[in-house]
Amino acid sequence: MIRHTAAAALAAVLLAGAPMAYAATDTAATTMKQGEIRASKFIGSSVYDLHNAKIGSIKELLFDRAGHIEQAIVDVGTFLGMGGKLVAIGLNDIKTDNNRLTLDMTKDQLKAAPAFKYRDTESTGSSTPAGGQLAQPHRAR
Fold this sequence. Notes:
Elements: H1 2-26, H2 39-42, E1 46-48, E2 54-63, E3 69-76, E4 85-90, E5 94-97, E6 100-103, H3 107-112, E7 116-117, E8 138-139
Parallel strand pairs: 1-6
Antiparallel strand pairs: 1-2, 2-3, 3-4, 5-6, 7-8
């Protein structure tokens, strides 16, 4: 009887300490690291040139099959939803400077860049075509 009570007490002590040990290691996994930015904050953010002039805004992010973001789609020159175009920019070309997104290009350079077109007919790429596969966007030539 004493053995069962001692074993139960030992098990209770071990189990009581387990959540604390788990919580100590889990905290680091749930905290954003320095320099990280949430996609929800990135999409829709304004993009500025090096002279602090607004040149567009982030419309979409394109992921490769491994889950890495390859490109950001920048909406250039749109006014009230009309007259602009989409341009694909390498994610490495967009920098964070003074808590804003900057690009080493002018608005005219972006307007002269090749237009980005979605492979599907949706303007947002958020739907899936028949068959349930995601549409594969591509650049216009």
